[in-house]
Write a structure and sequence with these properties.
The protein has about 350 residues and is mainly α. It is about 65% helix and about 0% strand.
Length: about 350
């Protein structure tokens, strides 16, 4: 049975069938109004938190197993799956609140190509980094006693200074480092081309004319793409996400001080994915985007559902409105463009 004043949108909204408590209705009025920007930012923070929590958590198990020489406690495969599944959960759970960027380079690319407001870019990036920072702190707290024992064992055998701030050390669980003596040119090339490939995949998945990846499959394809990149190129040092890199590095600086900076590699890890992504999206827009291609029915339903959601938040209960293809008016066309990039 529908609640009263059910608006005619072609979609059934949660509020049409479930009467939420009055205080939650009042809260929704706030989150749809003056607090909308904050909800989007918190959604971005939670999405990065999910991604980093599982990825760095898997890396913690891997490094603990390596330092203690215990076989079967983590591997590159489990780390890759941790990040991949974290992305699936981030997009599926937190994506609807913010659009599901979860990476500063993706946010910047949406501002360049899809009309995402530039004024929101700094807000999104700050909260993305915050999500990674908090996730790393939580993981450190969960493993705190074990990590202290590992550091003591490294001191005892005289390996602390040579191992701690490398990918194999305790700090290397959270912040990204290269192996001693690594060639930074090779590290940069590894990062750039891996990020370029990943950005092409992401842009292709978000293309609303993609017949092969309907919206429900998008989180899984993105997640597996991240896993595959880690399997293939993580040994050469890989960041792929400025928020994950800076959040983890700030956390390491909080715990271990200036020794955790990462040297010259820190700039490569934090920045390289941004120009790589912009170049990849330029290539995709020039080569693969074709305005004459049609939107499959699954993508049309997805986009129109978002339009109906946006209209339902803003229109009055006594102002029914029919949502069709998202292109009836200039306002609907602009909204269609803004939500068509949702991952």
């Amino acid at each position: 049975m529908f609640t009263k004043n059910h608006p005619v949108t072609g979609f059934t909204h949660l509020g049409d069938v479930i009467q939420r408590p009055r205080w939650l209705q009042q809260w929704e009025s706030l989150r749809h109004g003056s607090l909308h920007w904050l909800i989007e930012c918190i959604g971005e923070a939670f999405g990065v938190y999910f991604y980093v929590y599982l990825g760095v958590g898997a890396n913690a198990a891997f490094n603990i197993g390596s330092i203690t020489s215990q076989a079967g406690i983590g591997s590159l495969q489990t780390v890759a799956l941790g990040y991949g599944l974290g992305i699936v959960m981030a997009v599926a759970i937190a994506g609807p609140a913010s659009g599901g960027h979860f990476n500063p380079c993706v946010t910047i690319a949406h501002a360049v190509w899809h009309g995402f407001p530039w004024r929101k870019v700094p807000q999104f990036i700050i909260f993305q980094i915050l999500g990674a920072y908090v996730a790393c702190l939580v993981i450190y707290g969960q493993y705190h006693s074990t990590l202290l024992l590992l550091e003591e064992s490294l001191h005892a055998v005289g390996k602390y200074d040579t191992v701690q701030f490398t990918p194999n050390g305790v700090a290397g669980i959270f912040a990204l480092y290269t192996l001693p003596g690594a060639n930074l040119r090779d590290v940069f090339m590894n990062e750039f081309f891996a990020d370029f490939f990943l950005a092409l995949i992401i842009w292709g998945i978000m293309d609303p004319t993609n017949l092969f990846v309907p919206p429900p499959a998008a989180p899984w394809v993105v997640g597996f793409a991240y896993s595959a990149i880690i399997w293939a190129f993580a040994p050469g040092a890989l960041s792929a996400n400025t928020a994950r890199d800076l959040g983890g590095r700030f956390m390491a600086l909080t715990i271990w001080g200036k020794s955790a900076t990462g040297g010259k590699y820190a700039a490569i890890a934090a920045i390289t994915n941004i120009p790589a992504t912009l170049l990849a999206t330029l290539v995709y827009e020039l080569i693969f985007v074709d305005s004459s291609r049609v939107l499959p029915s699954a993508q049309q339903e997805f986009l129109n559902g978002h339009l109906a959601h946006g209209n339902h938040k803003t229109m009055g209960a006594d102002q029914p409105r029919i949502i069709t293809d998202g292109s009836n008016s200039s306002d609907e066309k602009q909204e269609f463009r803004e939500i068509s990039h949702v991952a």
